[in-house]
Amino acid sequence: MSSDALKKRKSKVVRSEGGTPEMKRGREAEQQDVRVYNEEVELDSRDPEQDFLQYKESCEGLATMMSEIQELKANGAKEGSAEVEQRRMQGCIHFMNLKKLNRLAHMRLKKGRDQTHDAKQKVDVLHLQLQNLLYEVMHLQKEISKCLEFKSKHEEIDLVSESEFYQEAPDEISRPHLTKNDPHQLTLARLDWELEQRKRLAEKYKECQSTKEKIQKSIEVKKEHLTSLQPGLNAIMQASLPVQEYLAMPFEQAQIQTEVARHLPPALYVLFVQANAYGQACDKNLSVSISGDVDEAKALSKPPEDSQDDESDSDAEEEQEKTKRRRPTTGGQLDDKRKEMLKRHPLSLCLDLKCKDGSILHLHFYYLMNLNITTVKAKVSTSTDLISAISAGDLLKSDTLLSCLYSSDQGKETPNPANRYQFDKVGIVTFADYVEELGHPYMWVQSLGGLHFPKDSSEGVSVGSSLSASHMENTMKLLRGRLQARLALHKQFASLEHSIIPVSSECQHLFPAKIISRLSRWTTITQQEYMELPYTRHVSDAGLAKESDLYFMSVVERGTARLQAALVLSPRYPEISPLFSLSLSWKGERTGRTDDNLRAMESEINVFKNELQGPRPGHQLLTNQISRLCVCLDVYLETEGQDDSVEGPLEFPREKMCLRTVRGPNRLKPFKYNHPQGFFSHR
Q: Of 42, 223, 593, 606, which has the fewest beta carbons less than 10 angstroms from its beta carbon?
């Protein structure tokens, strides 16, 4: 069909229906609204499955109509023929039916979505209500827990016990007829009684405060009165100084020292107090004094001030500028750090220990602030000049005088274990290099100062006066004994160097009246020289020759016989006796390792030393041992077999009386002297 035919047909339809196209569209819209409304009503009565089957039938019918129209056109039917138009009208009906079914499906889908949305909204409302209820439940549980855990302020008050409450509280507060059966009323009554007691205590406190103020005012008045007396007392003390000196009661000096002692470090202060107490109670010959810069010590004890004046600020700035201009080298910095670490406290303590012979042992105690240890230097002064002796040069030196006062305490290394880590930072290898300058840090010095260094590093260093008091008496006795022993040795060495063996009258009975062997030489030797001697190797191997010991060589002669005796003298003499090693040059070389009789002579001197102690404290032990050595040499030579074929007098005539000249397979000689019979026998 052509386009002109279609237009003509449409115009005919419009005219047949009547009205303009606009009128027609209005009527169609009204009909559509009515149809839509009818379809919505109709939707509820329709079955979706039936609509689906109808949809399939319409699709199949539409496909059938299209196929038939195609066959008709293929068979030559024209466009406007009746068969084609009929089938086209039927196809249009099927198509309209499909559109209707499509609308119904969309309406049904929209209706389902609306129902689902309404259901979701209902579920959301119910879920929100559930959440609100759960929140209210949780809130109520929290409130219940708070109520259960609630603690009233009265529970923090330490109330009196119930029995004490009923006993002390009056009846108008205790109300026993009501409170004994009601815990709540009992608590209220106890709180009322507590309040009443506190009111009474507050009134009493006010009364005490007023009394305190009155007492303070009276104290202030008395202080002013005492302050006004101070100048008069000072004048009286100054006027009484000659009297104090005459009566040997230096109150003024003691007061000054006590004032200065406040600025001592803790270790030296403990030593000052304990030494003063010991001197007053037990040893009147012990005096204590303080020396050093008091102003510098006061500056150390003062806390650093926060505010400084402009002058000090300018000085600090100038010093800082100088430091910036002059950059120190690494070595200079280490030297400064070492000096700072080894710095001593400006105040030191001096103990003067006087002996009966007039000699004085001066002990100067120092405190190293950064190392937290105490050191000591010793010096000896005598009432008379000592006879100079070369071999006695080391006896009174500060390095050896106090060595091993207690066993194995040489005072070369610091006893504080923390110092080792401090030395590593500044490059100090050993503290022994600085002992001569700073003094010896003996363990007994730390004990006198109350310093205790535990082996466990987790514990801190403690300072206690009880430790000082427990060591004071024994240490003072040891110091006085050491000084007397060294002075006695000094006199003995002076005689021994002149080949004179001093024997006191109390020890004359230990030896026969006639001793022919004589001491020809007495010298000091070094430890290295001692260890190089072949007949002292057994002593060195046994560890009896220590670095702290003193070593000497003595030579005893009689005729052609020459006896060398190398001896080790312990610093703790006479508590530890000297140890002799012998070598005899006569008809060959003989030692205690090759000759049994020389070994017996060594035993006579070293083992049976108790017989040679003499009067206490045994300061004559060394000279008695040397005298016994001369006697033993006489016995050895006189009892030795001599050649009778040689004419002339015997080289060693028998002067000693012996019961038996030899005994046993070793042919031992009688070295034991029996007093007062005056003969020699075997042990």
A: 223
